[in-house]
Amino acid sequence: GDSVTQMEGPVTLSEEAFLTINCTYTATGYPSLFWYVQYPGEGLQLLLKATKADDKGSNKGFEATYRKETTSFHLEKGSVQVSDSAVYFCALTHQAGTALIFGKGTTLSVSS
Amino acid sequence: DAGVIQSPRHEVTEMGQEVTLRCKPISGHNSLFWYRQTMMRGLELLIYFNNNVPIDDSGMPEDRFSAKMPNASFSTLKIQPSEPRDSAVYFCASSLANYGYTFGSGTRLTVV
Question: Cβ contacts (< 8 Å) between B33 and chain A: which residues?
Answer without folding.
Answer: 99-100
